[in-house]
Predict the 3D structure of the following.
Amino acid sequence: MTATLVTTPTPTTGTVASPATQAETILSIRNLVTRFKTGDGVVAAVNGISLDIAAGETIGVVGESGSGKSQLFMSVMGLLASNGRATGSVKYRGQEILGLAPAKLNRFRGSKMSMIFQDPMTSLNPYLTIARQMTEVLVQHKGMSQSQALKRSIEMLDLVRIPEAKRRIGMYPHEFSGGMRQRVMIAMALLCQPDLLIADEPTTALDVTVQAQILDLMRDLKREFNTSIVLITHDLGVIAGLADRVMVMYAGNVVETGAVRDIFYSPQHPYTEGLLQSMPRLNSDRHAELPSIGGQPPNLQDLPPGCNFQPRCRYAHARCLAEEPALRPCGEGSAGVPRAKACHLAQLPLTEADRAVIEADRAARTRH
């Protein structure tokens, strides 16, 4: 008798409903696909992602380097490299913005949607003072005079806790520490009080004390301005401290999404499970080897057949090699946030039916 994998029905769409149906939707992404043409072939960076972000919501986007996290939102902001192209739909408050000409898109960038980039030292112009770089935003988007813009910039530096802001605003980026430069970037992003703040690895290369200060600052700013925040990171600890909802990405696809508590306490995708198990813990044996996910992320120019994660998955079986799983609901989520995953397994921990399928498949492969 052949064992049969027990799963819930697969829906015809990969869209998961917004968790905050009561709140206004700030950003709506539908079937976003991003491709890059290179000399070696086409790179599939983002593969048909759909997502809603509600007012005041913080969503954490997590995954290894190369999972498509940054390129997803670079596509949204219209900041792809010249060899990149995005298709699908991106709507800000119901207005389509994907594919807008740069002049029209600039009406949204900075004033309605802002982005904090990974490295503040390379994002800030080393030849211009902080004052020049901050006031330019307000003069361009708000039509302020130079004196009004300078006053507002100093107020914002005070808000992000830059000491002696009135004196330091005349300094150059190299005169600030890494943590202070990141605060300047946050201040610049919030100058026009945008509805949506996209933070791409905002705590990279900062020590843990400064990381905590930056996260506290973002939490305070969210509370004060009701700003929606997208937090892009590979650090699940950062996600736990700030996000309401988590979206896990792998090889340009969403593999799991749900409330932060559900993802951390009951992961339903093997990749999410592997990410959580690879985190150091204070109560673990410090002499024991830290668990890791075997193998390497796939080549985006030559993705494996079936499930993209199957070459690294300890639960992989014949169906995983033959059929790419669709993103589908996977049980009730907490706090009104729907759960979804892209996996053929019924659930984790494994059901007896799933375990039987996996063991039968391994036995068959051993015989051949």
Summary: The two ends are 19 Å apart (CA to CA). Residues 208-225 form the longest helix (18 residues). The longest strand covers residues 25-38.
